[in-house]
Automatic annotation (TrEMBL):
One family name in Pfam for this protein: Transglut_core
InterPro entries from the UniProt entry: Papain-like_cys_pep_sf, Transglutaminase-like
Protein name as catalogued: Transglutaminase-like domain-containing protein
Domain Transglutaminase-like positions: 102-191
């Protein structure tokens, strides 16, 4: 009989990665909790379960998450008439009602409502050597979970209330998170790291990220072949990215992040910082004149007379010219943060997303 891949436990962003430890084999743990009543499913001898003619992995299934484990477990005791899966359905219904998920008009708004609800309902807690905090049941019923529990809960809620929306449960050796398709594109979502238990609210650093963005955060290295059917080859969405999330959190309104204006630096290094600053100012003013709050700009040719360290000076100049506070978030690799703004600079250029509240 084949064994599951060993379970690894990822710590939240503020935890010590050195505390990460390997758990016992998942199959060994699951079989200690197999329910006596097997009428609702058929357990197979290859680490899978068959429900209503569909066969999937007991745990860490990219499409079904940890549904199989919950169908085989009765946390209330072996004499209980309900499995964890049965109890979860009631918990999802209560969650959806409590956080007005079905009253939201778009998939994006429902997604944010689900993530917001999860960080309020659940506290991050690791149970080493156990699946106790590994499922949506632990997150929504026990209100304590590790990364797998948060990710499973996100998956199961989306499947329940957004049946036409594609969603995946993704796990690596160290962590678990989700992929969700909004519109035509896929995005990464990490509800675990969004949960700052110190504030009980979103941090908006791990919602609707692209492949490069999520992988630059660490722990998020994933096998694109293990994403279910149809496979998800890449997550390249930008329209509902971090600035769209931020504007929605601030205003309750949705504004999609636009395609970028490209500013090309002269290869001979003659482009001045003041020229770049003035073009960014002009682009923001045009966006505001058109009633938009998000401006996206790509500075092509980083290093041609302007280096990544000078982006901070340019953006301070933009703020001074506009006489308005800005939030800006460029993308991936090099990350800069101060009290008012954050951005990331690529190796060949700078993609800057600017929000004018």
């Amino acid at each position: 009989m084949s064994l599951f891949a060993a379970l690894w436990i990822a710590m939240p962003v503020y935890a010590d990665p050195d505390d990460t430890v390997q758990a016992p084999p998942a199959e060994e743990i699951v079989r200690e909790n197999i329910a006596e009543d097997r009428n609702s499913y058929e357990e197979r001898n290859d680490g899978t379960i068959t429900v209503n003619g569909e066969t999937f992995q007991i745990i860490n299934d990219p499409v079904h998450g940890n549904e199989g484990c919950m169908r085989m477990t009765k946390s209330a005791g072996p004499d209980s008439e309900e499995t964890d899966w049965d109890v979860l359905q009631k918990a999802i219904a209560e969650f959806v009602e409590k956080y007005d998920v079905n009253r939201k008009s778009t998939d994006f708004e429902k997604e944010i409502a689900i993530i917001r609800g999860l960080v309020k309902e659940c506290t991050y807690e690791v149970k080493r050597g156990s699946l106790e905090n590994y499922t949506a049941y632990s997150c929504l019923v026990g209100h304590r979970a590790q990364c797998a529990g948060y990710s499973d809960a996100f998956l199961q809620i989306v499947r329940a209330v957004m049946p036409d929306t594609e969603v995946r449960y993704i796990h690596s050796d160290l962590h678990a998170w989700n992929l969700i398709r909004i519109g035509r594109h896929w995005y990464h979502v990490d509800a675990t790291w969004e949960d700052d238990d110190r504030t009980g609210d979103l941090v908006n650093r791990y919602i609707n990220l692209s492949d490069d963005e999520i992988e630059s955060t660490g722990y998020h290295h994933w096998d694109r072949e293990d994403t279910g059917m149809p496979a998800v080859s890449s997550a390249d969405g930008t329209a509902y990215g971090p600035m769209t999330v931020q504007y929605y959190l601030l205003s309750g309104k949705t504004e999609m992040t636009p395609d970028p204006l490209v500013i090309e630096l002269a290869p001979d290094g003659t482009t001045k910082m003041t020229e770049v600053r003035d073009r960014i100012v002009h682009a923001v003013k045009r966006s505001r004149g058109a009633g938009r709050h998000i401006t996206r700009i790509y500075i092509d040719g980083l290093g041609y007379g302007i280096h990544r360290e000078q982006i901070t000076t340019i953006m301070l100049g933009v703020r001074d010219r506009l006489r308005q506070s800005l939030q800006y978030l460029p993308q991936s690799w090099f990350v800069y943060r101060d009290d008012e703004a954050s951005y990331t600079v690529t190796e060949t250029g700078t993609m800057i997303s600017i929000l004018t509240p």
